[in-house]
Amino acid sequence: MNIFTKILAFAAPALIAVSCTSVGDRPGWEYAPDMYYAKGYEPYSQPVEPYEYNPYGMSMRIPAEGSISLGHLDEVYAFENSGDGYEAAGNELIMPAVVNIDPEHAKDRFIIYCAPCHGETGKNDGPIFKKVSTLKPAWSGYSDDYIKNLPDGKIYHTLMYGKNNMGSHSSVLTPAERWAVIKYVRVLSNGGTAATAPTEDAMSETEDMKGDAE
Question: Could you say which of 1.10.760, 1.10.730, 2.120.10, 1.10.357 is the CATH number of the domain covering 73-189?
Answer without folding.
Answer: 1.10.760
